[in-house]
Batch of 3 targets.
Target 1
Amino acid sequence: MISVANNTGSLPCCVRIKFPAARVSRSMRDTACKVLQVKEKLTAETGREPDVETIAKALDIA
């Protein structure tokens, strides 16, 4: 068992080596934000959660 108090930083370093952070582009983050906004809007309008195709058509990305 690793003691965090005695080995400060060793566990996070190990995790970083095995699982490097994936970098997400700004445009992808912006698209994800738009998807969530459109999903909420369509859910409010129709009373049900929209499917992926409906969201894509609303954003004109299909």
Target 2
Amino acid sequence: MRGDGNPVPLLRAYKPESNSIGSGQVLQQPYDFQKGKLIVREMTDLLVLDLVDKGLVTDQMVLTVGYDIENLTDPERRKSYKGPIVTDHYGRKIPKHAHGTANLDGQTSSTSKIMDAVMALYDRIVDENLLVRRINITANHVVQETTVQEKKTYEQLDLFVDYAALERQQAEEEESLRREKQMQQAMLSIKKKYGKNAILKGTNLKEGAMTIERNRQIGGHKA
């Protein structure tokens, strides 16, 4: 009760309808196009597992790739670069960063769907001739998977469409996604029990890969 005898109005905590989740990394040294892509693949893998762990889904991925100063300090590289130049927060001239968005086909936490979209986005926006130094990746419009309602779709019948085959295809995709989710959850369970480096992929062992080291830095079990 307030001093005037009237009840204190209840204040409800504001909860946004959607959110975002992401990660960023400054590389220890400049990476070429292919090694940069490897890091983006690793970061995407970890981000998707984080979504699954939190029971979240997304329908949009955003990628930002910052280039290294060596692209302009090296005379040969500087000679071949004709794109826009900006000043970083240290006052140095660098090529303008690459930035892009990939819209997914509905809300998902599927590694295969998200990975395909992010890899295609990287190929589309990143200059293959430049050295990469910073990477940020974000999942936008993140919501709890349990709150996602299936949208009803209405389709005009087409006499030339094999709807039986279409239904079989959709059923196969749903089963594939179900198996993928089981695998993701199994991986999370093992990582939580035995450490984040308990399960690794072939890409994590390639030259320039950073997942093993990052896992050690942020709480993974050291060998």
Target 3
Amino acid sequence: MENIRTSVLMAVAMLLAAACDKDDKMGVPAPVPTPTPQPITGTAPVSTEAGIEGNQVKWVQLWENGPKFAEMNVGADSAASYGDFFAWGETEPYYQQGDARKESPSWQAGKSSGYAWGSYRYCKGTEKTFTKYCNSVNSGNGGYSDKNTVLDFSDDAAYVCWGSNWRMPDANEMKALVDTNYTDGGTWIEDYHESGVAGMLFKGKPGTRFENNAVFLPAEGYRTDKGLTNKDKGIYWTGSLRNETAIAAWQVNFTSEKCNSGYFPRYSGLSVRPVLNQMISGTCSIRPEAGVTGHRAGWVQLWENGPRFALMNVGADSVAGYGDYFAFGETEPYYQPGNAQAESASWKSGKEAGYAWGSYPEPYPETDIANALWGENWRMPSSLEFDTLLNTDYTDGGTWIENYKGTGVNGYIFKGTAGTEYADNELFFPAASMRQGLYLNSLGGCGFYWSGTVRAQNDNYAYYMNFNRDYSETDYHDRCLGRAVRPVLK
């Protein structure tokens, strides 16, 4: 009996011990995995036109969440070589190729004034006649003002000359570069790596994981009027206009004695140091004739290296607006203004057949509608880009939604893939339906959006994306039909 009692007690003790062990394990939270630090150096492609060996440029990051600075200037072919000089908002030098550092360069056609208002693209010859990037009616041509203080990609020398992986840094990024709260503040180097080139070497702040990272900015001087001046000084553009005046934009400058930030007249020829373009949402200017408040449209990117889709349709003035309907390649609707969603529309002369072959011109038009109506920054998406938008390897594939944000408008909403940096980005396409012949079909029940791609096998057809509450797809159909257009950034 004693043996039985002992065995029972031991069994109970073992069960209790197991239970306690189980409870203890359940009470201890699972260890939180340590995030993998993001790379702080790397390389990224540049366009072949940049003339850089291997079409790759190294980049380096100097502070947490800071921009990734390229190792060289636009127009240079190494970290220690001089680059080109650009007026703010211009994407080509004013001098002939190879003349960057000549005292008396040969000038491009229309630029014989050198770096002066007479050569500047976005004014009519004076500082009171700006035609773009004008935050004051007193400085605009004929009272023009667009309140635009940030360079569009199409006017960004880094973006245009090196490709979409790069952009010019903004004012805050360049100010941080010379700020000892973010970097070591810079050290003057008289002869960088025995190249004979002087300039400023910036390093990550001591004691941070960036302390061994460095970026060298040559002291190139700058161009004003027809001369090259201050050759012992470095002065670099940002992509930011000064808020107080349209005349000047922000820059960072340095000499052997100090670093500063300030502003300079836009016509001046300064250096450009690109940073890696990691923007996944933003705004960009559109033509004033598009009728959008502020002459700007928002855009969003949903996957790596994907297109930057506008947030609204051509002809709309809000994200939930249906916009206008266009036959493929035609830049004007066939109906009279204000008749876009009218069941019985009034038709323009020669378009009385509505969206049918009887109204469609020959030879077939090939104009990019987004580019023509919104301006040089925009284009129509390709059929492949629409295919990718619907592909769950790149986005969430899209979801039908009723009454988008209380607007009463139905449509399809796309989001970036969960777990990626694009996860919080979303893109709404109203169910604008389509116009076929004289009729508007099922407004609010489906959406049809032209791509910019003609079917190679039969040019009577062009590709489009369509959706309803049950499915989404890309297909092709008669190019005479009236469909919505959603731009993407060029």
